[in-house]
Amino acid sequence: MTTKKRPPAPKRRDEIGEPKQIPPEQMPDYYPRPEDEDLNEALKQTFPASDPISMESTLVVGRRNWRKRD
Asked: φ and ψ at 16, to 5 degrees?
């Protein structure tokens, strides 16, 4: 009868050491997404700032505590 050897235990956090920091010159370049004027205009027409969403429009019909048993 042979027994399999257990894998080594993972290192404890204090044995791992400090996390490695990537130098700024090796960081990848991230660019902000260019503005989409068509999308911005469509959003302004859909959600005008002068007409905030009212509380009544966000209500859902139904029981408030639908999971509770009587």
From this structure: -75, -40
